[in-house]
Specification:
single chain; mainly alpha; 2 domains; extended; membrane; UPF0014_fam
Length: about 100
């Protein structure tokens, strides 16, 4: 399906004489590579408890950096507390209700 969409995109750009068809191909290739990397990381994180903790820390750090960069009018510490609070409540509900086991299978 994605190959069909890429073909339609490239053809549309080429017919319209818009010189961005190479960028479309590069973007799809980069996206496929990123998805492959994320799937590998998740595969490791779901089988190794240490990797799951590292992945959560990386995701938390990324969320804080992204939010701090986009919401400049709020202090970074306040955003960090808000994100940590939301994460704590969510994980508490998920693991507290037994929706997910707190162990690696």
């Amino acid at each position: 399906m994605s190959g069909c969409l890429l073909t339609c995109t490239v053809l549309t750009l080429w017919i319209g004489r818009i010189p961005l068809w190479v960028s479309a191909i590069i973007a799809v290739g980069r996206g496929a590579g990123q998805l492959a990397l994320v799937s590998l990381l998740l595969g490791v994180a779901l089988t190794q408890s240490w990797a799951g903790i590292v992945l959560l820390a990386v995701m938390l750090t990324t969320a804080i950096i992204t939010a701090t960069g986009r919401l400049r009018e709020f202090p970074g510490a306040l955003l960090s507390i808000a994100i940590l609070s939301g994460m704590t409540v969510t994980l508490g509900i998920v693991f507290g209700t037994g929706a997910f086991d707190f162990s690696i299978r």
